[in-house]
Amino acid sequence: MGHFPQMLKAGPGDVLRTWTNTVPNHGIIRYLDFFNMERLAIVGPDALADVLTHHCYDFEKPLQLRKGISRILGMGLFLAEGEVHKRQRKNLMPAFAYRHVKNLYPMFWSKSRETMTALLASFNRHGDGGFSENVSVEVNEWATRATLDIIGQGGFGQSFNAIQDPENKLSQTYRSIFKQGRTGQILGLLSFLFPLWLLRRLPLLRNHRMKQGSDFIRAFCRSSIESKRQQGSLESEGELDILSVAMKSGGFSDEDLVDQMMTFLAAGHETTASALTWAIYAISKHPQVQARLRAEVDRHLPNPITNSSSIVTAETIEQMPYLSAVCREVLRLYSPVAVTIRVAVKDTTIAGQAIPKGTTIMPAPWAVNGSIDLWGGDALEFKPERWQERKASDGERKGTNYDYMTFLHGPRSCIGQTFAVGELSCLLAAWVAAFETRLTDPDYVPVVKGGITAKPKDGVHVPYDSSQQVNPDKYPNHRAVNSIWTNAVLGPFELAYLFHQKGLFHRSSSDSNQPTLLLERIHPKDVRDTQK
Ligand code: HEM
To answer: How far apart are CA 182 and CA 203, in angstroms?
Structure first.
């Protein structure tokens, strides 16, 4: 069994992080996985530089893994190798140039606003017209719906409607296939012994769900591409969503485009959703960070609930150093891709060590990002301030680019990282502007769940009660958040939500001819009375 039971229990990221900090190593740690299969964990800067940059194309994602996840991820950029990968990346890069991604910030913000407004409306639904002491919400579910809509708009120029519709088929499908469960784990292990085609034919509910899910996603992507062609929107110069760029490049057949779209859908939402989930966990555990962040947000950003018309740009977000520090620290300490995998496709070297063809290696962002050697004695603490201090002490740094591995480095680094950082910043800023967050169980220590991304196994639950509302005395800009329950001037967007909550509001008598309405909240008891 090798070290497999340990990995299964604590998650490979945590085990490798502990070893990195306790076992003397030169950036490579050898261990034994299931059936004593040899693995080399890559946890030091020199070794990482060789694997990710200098000898990048000497290593590939294992064929078995590519076949296994291609029906969900598509055989797109994530799974392409060698020359095919180089060509695809070149064709897709224009969509991720910063000059383009920065134009997406107003959309990131408007989707973040939409999420917070929907969340507020949902408390109300659960709480029978008011905040309830016994209702909690699982953050990852909301995060996933938000990031799915964001990739829908920024990636494909389409509205998926996942934020507003909890039953949305696309988001339900991803939830069901990303839920690994015991059967998924066992099938994963059996794939070391039996061919995939055989395992996929076993009459198991899991197999059935995966097949249905992958067929649905493929059909969804195919019809999105067709409708984009029919709309003829490619003709417009301004169309720079990922799909338009891929179509305009002329380098992809229609089926290739389907694969690329599947890749960006999956890679582009699950990861950022995990990051946002960890962010809410981290700020809930560190109220002083949350308060400092809220003060900065309060100084720079409009209220996400009540101010529907203002536009937030990349320049505004970039004026917020503490927000940037919090996001970076979340992504450092809770890297959504904890460990990844490669196999040497030829004899090569890593940090001067001979590596025979066929060796399996595991670059481990979770371990590197938590390395005491690289980050100091407080490496395992959540301290956004380190990013502000770092700048000042640049000269004393270890002088490496390979200490922050969240998006990897080199030709196989995350192509979507500027996109991800932008959306995470907007979502987190909107969240702290709308809610003061704490955990339902203040002592909750999450067990990290492996799988496609590392996230808390049991999710992150925050309660909804009146104490979650932002205190307007402390944050003057957010006065209106509190007052949404009393008197608020709302835009058309909020109205759509709030009218959804039948019977909870009535028109104020003050001025019913205004384009926006002044609403007063009716006490839930009065609603019940009127229903008698
Ligand atoms: C916080 C969010 C994100 C994190 C932590 C993250 C992390 C990563 C990592 C570590 C890889 C390399 C995996 C490997 O090669 O083993 C990767 C690759 C990739 N990511 Fe991301 N990602 C995030 C968001 C996104 C977004 C928003 C998109 C798309 C809009 C995206 C698209 C991709 C693609 C297409 C690849 C494959 C790149 C290639 O091989 O050339 N990711 N990501």
So the answer is: 16
